[in-house]
Amino acid sequence: MSSRPSTSICAPSTRSARRGRAGALFTDTGGYRRTVLDGHATAAPAHPPPHWQLTGILLGLLSAALAITLATLAVRRPVHTGTAALLAPVRRLQSGHIGDYVAWLIAGTALLTLLTVPGVR
Description:
Blueprint: H1 7-27, H2 29-38, H3 54-76, H4 81-93, H5 98-120
């Protein structure tokens, strides 16, 4: 076995380093302006790598646990007759045909547009 790492191990780290530099150059608007207007290439600004915080880790774990719990309950919980009776009109609106999906997509898009357009002005 060689003491040099294989190229398949080095390639992802090299690619991510290039992506990081490209991302830094892309978001550096001042450097972009200087490059385009003055013709001088600039170096990528140094950005510290993101660090993990305990709150971010805990919130991520909590959301994953909640998603798994809700998915398990949705699959294994028996349907109660009271809930089924309340949802019957809604279930009649969605039959599973492609037209239903298109209609709900258009209705949802229209609703989101109506809710967000007044805030844009």
